[in-house]
Specification:
Pathway: Organic acid metabolism; glycolate biosynthesis; glycolate from 2-phosphoglycolate: step 1/1. It is an enzyme of class 3 (hydrolase). It catalyses: 2-phosphoglycolate + H2O = glycolate + phosphate. One of its GO terms (molecular function) is phosphoglycolate phosphatase activity. The protein is of the alpha/beta class. The chain folds into two domains: about 140 residues, HAD superfamily/HAD-like (Rossmann fold); about 80 residues. The chain has ten helices and six strands, in the order βαααααβαβαβαβαβα. The chain has a six-stranded parallel sheet with strand order 3-2-1-4-5-6. The radius of gyration is 18 Å and the shape is globular. The two termini are about 15 Å apart.
């Protein structure tokens, strides 16, 4: 094709990790927390709560700000002010706090890979979790030594990735984002960063050649290079 230039895929240097659903698994805990929150403040029936539950699990890369807004505006068909969302976000954090701070939620195979490879690659976390909560949680879990930066929401993940490239001078083709949701994939695409799916059958069907089944004996360089060639 005239004018078409094939993407040059550079050697992998930077690995960006989604947090919840990849490094740490608290999706169920947070799902129950949202249910408690909405039952306190609305008269939502089981149909509405089930619709939100489906949305929550399908959108791991979406912040709690946006999830609360989605529940009110898309499911309940009600308007909600930004100040009210902020108050509900704070209350949600209080609901889940007691059970969130536990090493039991860490993904053992991912943690083993991170410990074994944090000197080979530069690791970052880009998460939809609340930034202040994420910082405290990662310190509690002893994860800080393995990551150059740990960023949560706000802003949205696509903006976190854009800021990362700008602040550190990274080329997208020397990076990869590992995530468990379609919104993670979309955030990577928006920044022209190769994406690898994990822990989600929907992504496995969508991206069969860019999917991590297990981290044991994983050739991350080869899989990322193939993803780069296929996706751009």
């Amino acid at each position: 094709m005239v004018g078409y230039e094939k993407r040059v895929c550079m050697a992998l240097k930077i690995v960006v990790w989604d947090f919840d659903g990849v490094v740490f698994d608290s999706m169920h805990l947070k799902g129950e927390g949202f249910k408690v929150l909405f039952q306190r403040h609305t008269k939502a029936d089981e149909r509405a709560l089930k619709a939100f539950e489906d949305y929550h699990y399908a959108n791991g890369g979406v912040s709690r700000f946006d999830k609360i807004a989605h529940f009110y505006t898309k499911i309940l068909k009600k308007s909600i002010e930004a100040d009210t969302i902020n108050a509900l976000v704070e209350e949600f954090g209080q609901i889940i706090a007691k059970d969130l701070f536990s090493r039991e939620h860490l993904n053992a195979e991912v943690l083993d890979f991170i410990k074994a490879n944090h000197k080979k690659y530069i690791f970052h976390i880009a998460s939809a979790a609340l930034h202040s909560e994420l910082q405290v949680l990662c310190e509690f879990l002893g994860l800080l030594p393995y990551f150059k930066s740990i960023k949560g929401a706000p802003p949205a993940k696509a903006k976190i990735l854009a800021n990362m490239c700008a602040n550190y001078g990274y080329a997208p083709s020397e990076m990869v984002l590992i995530g468990d949701s379609r919104s993670d994939h979309e955030s990577a695409q928006a920044n022209k960063i190769p994406f690898l799916g994990y822990n989600n059958p929907v992504l496995q069907n969508l991206l069969p050649k860019a999917y991590i089944n297990h981290f044991a004996r994983l050739d991350l360089d080869a899989l990322t290079r193939q993803a780069c060639l296929d996706q751009f």
